[in-house]
From TrEMBL, chain A:
Protein name per Swiss-Prot or TrEMBL: Thiosulfate oxidation carrier complex protein SoxZ
Gene name of the record: soxZ_1
A Pfam family of this chain: SoxZ
Entry-linked InterPro entries: Ig-like_fold, Ig_E-set, SoxZ, SoxZ_dom
Domain Sulphur oxidation protein SoxZ: 8-100
Automatic annotation (TrEMBL), chain B:
Gene: soxY_1
Pfam families: SoxY
Domain annotation Ig-like SoxY: ranges: 52-153
Signal sequence segment: none
Residues passing through the membrane, by range: none
Record organism: Zoogloea ramigera
Name of the protein in its database record: Thiosulfate oxidation carrier protein SoxY
InterPro entries noted in UniProt: SoxY (IPR032711), SoxY_sf (IPR038162), Sulphur_oxidation_SoxY (IPR016568), TAT_signal (IPR006311)
Amino acid sequence: MADPMKIRASAKEGITEVKILMSHEMETGQRKDTAGALIPAHFITEVSAEHNGKQVLAAQFGTAVSKNPYLAFKFKGGAKGDKLAVTWMDNKGDKRTDEVQIA
Amino acid sequence: MNLQRREALKAGGGLGLFGLLAAAGLITPGQARAEWNKSAFDAKTIEETLKALGASAPANSADVQITAPDIAENGAVVPVGVVSALAGVEAIAILIEKNPNPLAASFMLPAGTEAAVQTRVKMGQTSDVYALVKVGGQFLMTKKEIKVTLGGCGG
């Protein structure tokens, strides 16, 4: 299981701003190790954010997203104390969900 | 008559399979809406990527803005944001022309989510970065050149 995500969600004037920092290698599959063999690709393919069970963002990542991906977005609605859950899934089928309360 | 019946059967059969997969937990609602677009992420050129995304001829638009540095010192971490003042933006995609696979990330925005996303991408070399926005079934695009200085010598 991968390390937990760092998620910050803050509601202000009816708009919730979400910042997510995921912990993932994001290996492109283009790099070679010291022996010259290709390092197989290992990267997050999908990220989904849900506010009280309703999807507010669905993202698809390619290999070009940086290591330990950062993602920020905003949505209308959301109040202090509401739940925001973020899930990612990688190309090896690993996944992780973390939940925070909107501040 | 017969043809219609066949169509109906086909549609029914398709739904049945989907329902089965969903019931078995293989497909979550999120996945069902947006499955990872392999052909778009595997495309080697901007044109191929746009085709795979279903955006054949996006119009250039000043209503789409890329927020990114003009010069990125570290190509492994280039902050890129896409903002649009247009209402009803359904999807945003970030493309980097000179990367092995131009498509870096795409975002589906349900109603209520603002057209403002930010992430960090890798860039192999100085390149034009494109932001593609889908609004009301139409595709709009804008681009910005980001210079990548390797080695951090600032040249």
